[in-house]
């Protein structure tokens, strides 16, 4: 167990993700200064349902992209791991920003090859329908669920469910269930759009023989 500075936000950050933030509140400007001067990291626990979640992502400051005369900053960060909050403080000792006692979460990153193949097929289908083929082309062959999670139409609550999953296989099962649900809906929407487009056009139809 260790102490970690906390920066609750209304979003889910996945391990390996890079996140750019505009910092304007005094408490988080202090946090960035501490990251620079002390080399500390900080955690982003999602703020869901009017409360701070007990699961979060640890972030490393990569760079301060811009300093404003007002004291605001643009920063670049990278997610380096997961943690669980065991004790939350609205203010870390002697600081303006929040903090807490946390324990690190070890992740089983091994995928199931069969599930991976099914998900890849579904993703190809999804991105074809949405006109987002480039997303599929940019994916590495050994991609993890975290690499595609923000491009699946998941709600913030569903994304948090992926964080809660302790293994890659669990995440694969969650995503596959989601894709199995939304793809038929998308296909029906596409068929409806096509029927609307054809309405009013001259139709070359073969009359039935009777």
From TrEMBL:
Q: Where is the Lon N-terminal domain?
A: 3-181
Q: Write down the Pfam families for this protein, in alphabetical order.
A: LON_substr_bdg (PF02190)
Under the heading InterPro entries, the entry gives: Lon_prtase_N (IPR003111), Lon_prtase_N_sf (IPR046336), PUA-like_sf (IPR015947)
Domain of life, per the record?
Answer: Bacteria
Can you say what this protein is called? Answer: LON peptidase substrate-binding domain-containing protein
Species the sequence originates in: Hymenobacter telluris
Lineage here is:
Bacteria, Pseudomonadati, Bacteroidota, Cytophagia, Cytophagales
């Amino acid at each position: 167990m260790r102490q970690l500075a906390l920066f609750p936000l209304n979003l889910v950050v996945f391990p390996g993700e890079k996140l750019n933030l505009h910092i304007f509140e005094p408490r988080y400007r202090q946090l960035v200064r501490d990251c620079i001067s002390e080399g500390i990291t900080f955690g982003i626990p999602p703020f869901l349902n009017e409360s701070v979640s007990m699961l979060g992502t640890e972030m490393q400051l990569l760079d301060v992209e811009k300093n404003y005369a007002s004291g605001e900053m643009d920063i670049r960060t990278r997610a380096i791991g997961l943690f669980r909050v065991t004790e939350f403080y609205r203010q870390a000792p002697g600081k303006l920003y929040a903090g807490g006692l946390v324990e690190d979460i070890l992740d089983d990153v091994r995928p199931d090859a069969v599930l991976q193949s099914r998900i890849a097929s579904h993703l190809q289908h999804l991105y074809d329908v949405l006109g987002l083929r480039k997303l599929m082309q940019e994916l590495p062959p050994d991609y993890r669920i975290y690499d595609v999670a923000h491009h699946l139409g998941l709600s913030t609550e569903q994304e948090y469910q992926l964080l809660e999953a302790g293994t890659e296989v669990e995440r694969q099962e969650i995503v596959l269930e989601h894709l199995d649900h939304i793809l038929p809906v998308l296909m029906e929407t596409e068929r409806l759009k096509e029927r609307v487009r054809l309405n009013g056009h001259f139709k070359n139809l073969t009359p039935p023989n009777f």
